[in-house]
Amino acid sequence: MAGYFSIESILCEETAVPVKFTVGISPGMANILDAPTGSEEVKELPFWLARELDARNYADASVPKTHDERTLAKLKTDASKHSLFLANPYYYEAGVGISVMMGTPELVQALIVAFARRYRDILDRFENTEDRNAGKFFNTLTVEERRLYMSGQSSAVHHSKWKRRILEHIEHAPIVQLSKRHKPC
Fold it and tell me: Which of 8, 46, 148, 151 is found 20 to 30 A from 157 (Cα to Cα)?
């Protein structure tokens, strides 16, 4: 994930992952996890805990319903109609983490295809600010897609102002302003 001190990384690792315990759980741990002491029941745990339990062979983690083959097949057919934000606000980041944990590179490839299709739809929609369905569309976007959409809208507005000569000068992109090598004009 992104980093230890990243709030987004912490929120992404709260993704619920189904696990089935391979060892018996002590009664104290069962109370904490709200699970029976036997190992038969599948319990959903946060990704960070499921990853560690799976790595130590205490539990077998499986792919959550939000990232299973059926859901990815739906995304392949019509990616723009699905509300990934409701499934997980950090859908792509969580998917990559789950793919690494499960050792399934196919999941990453499916996420790339889904993101590319949704990205095209984002590009089509951000220029049309009068779109009455923009609010509904915006609510289906993940956190990363929302950033792209907002950035695209602000860039389109900025470009429009520049074309109409409302801006007095061309402004540097934020990434250039953060660069230490760039000297302000």
Answer: 8
Spell out the residues 6+ positions from residue 84 whose beta carbon is closer than 8 angstroms to its own: 91, 118, 140, 141, 142, 145
Q: Write the burial class of residue 124 (CB in 10 Å: 0-12 exposed, 13-18 middle, 19+ buried).
A: exposed
**Can you tell me the mean pLDDT for 71-76?**
80
Q: What is the pTM of this model?
A: 0.72
| Spatial distance between the Cα atoms of 22 and 40, rounded to a whole number of angstroms | 8
pLDDT for the residue 81: 75
Phi, psi (rounded to 5 degrees) for 143: -60, -45
The pLDDT score that the predictor gives to residue 178 is: 66
62: nearest Cα among 23, 109, 99: 99
Q: End-to-end distance of the chain based on CA atoms, in angstroms?
A: 37
Residue 152: predicted pLDDT = 82
Taking only the tens place, the pLDDT of each residue in 30-45 is: 667 666 655 567 788 8
Query: Is the CB of residue 99 less than 8 Å from the CB of residue 112?
Result: no
Alpha carbons 42 and 44: distance in angstroms, whole number: 7
- Cβ neighbours around 158 below 10 Å, total: 14
